[in-house]
Amino acid sequence: MQKLKGSAELELRIVLLGLDNAGKTTLLKCLASEDVNTITPTQGFNIKSVASHGMKLNVWDIGGQRKIRPFWKKYLENTDLLVYVIDSADKKRFEETGLELSELTDEENLAGVPILIFANKQDLGTASLASEIAEGLNLHTYRDRVWQIQACSAVTGEGVQVRDSRVTSITMVAKIIRTPVFSPAKN
After folding, report:
1. Was domain 2-178 assigned CATH 3.40.50.300?
2. Residue 81 clears pLDDT 50, i.e. is over it
3. Of 2, 65, 148, 150, which one is the catalytic site residue?
4. Annotated binding residues for Mg(2+)
5. Which family does it belong to (predicted)?
6. Quick one: three-class SS letters along the chain?
7. pTM for the full predicted model
């Protein structure tokens, strides 16, 4: 984290990951208050800066196709927050997404980095509850970092941002980062 020159604005590097079709780009467009009706699969990465509550959030949205995932680790250096998106309605891929998340948490460049997990597509009738996903991913075993799971629908904006105050889940986690209340145990 660093202060911008001549400004009190906090600048955060956020990496947005998850399997293909989880809704990462839709989530990013929702955060940036852009139209979410015309989304195409990300064939590499998108970068977008979003200003929110005195913070500049530089969000790297990296494609989730199987052939792109080995390159994820090249984007992790200096990450302040990992946002991981899960398609809550795609139960067949829960094991695969859990393995990918587990591998990410073992990456040296993400040691101690907070994780915000969006349990996306809650607007679909087949979506699993965020609490069920948290249990299935064994999130309670993550003791070396702050983590939060948030039910959401990137299409409707529900759970992504509170429209009246422009507070986003990412902003809430970023405020935790700015005033740490948790110190990872050093072994």
Report:
1. yes
2. yes
3. 65
4. 25, 42
5. Belongs to the small GTPase superfamily. Arf family.
6. CEECCCCCCEEEEEEEECCCCCCHHHHHHHHCCCCCCCCCCCCCEEEEEEEECCEEEEEEEECCCCCCHHHHHHHCCCCCEEEEEEECCCHHHHHHHHHHHHHHHCCHHHCCCCEEEEEECCCCCCCCCHHHHHHHCCHHHCCCCCEEEEECCCCCCCCCEECCCCEEHHHHHHHHHHCCCCCCCCC
7. 0.85
96-106 residue pLDDT tens? 999 999 999 99
Whole-number pLDDT of residue 168: 58
Q: What residue numbers does the annotated binding site for GTP cover?
A: 18-25, 64, 120-123
Q: Please tell me the predicted confidence (pLDDT) of residue 44.
A: 83
Note the pLDDT of residue 174: 58
Average pLDDT over residues 143-148: 89
Q: Are strands 10-17 and 55-62 parallel, antiparallel or unpaired?
A: parallel
Rg (CA), the chain: 16
Report the distance separating Cα 27 and Cα 47, nearest Å.
13
Q: Which two tokens stand for residue 107?
A: 């990456």
Identify whether 65 is a catalytic site residue.
yes
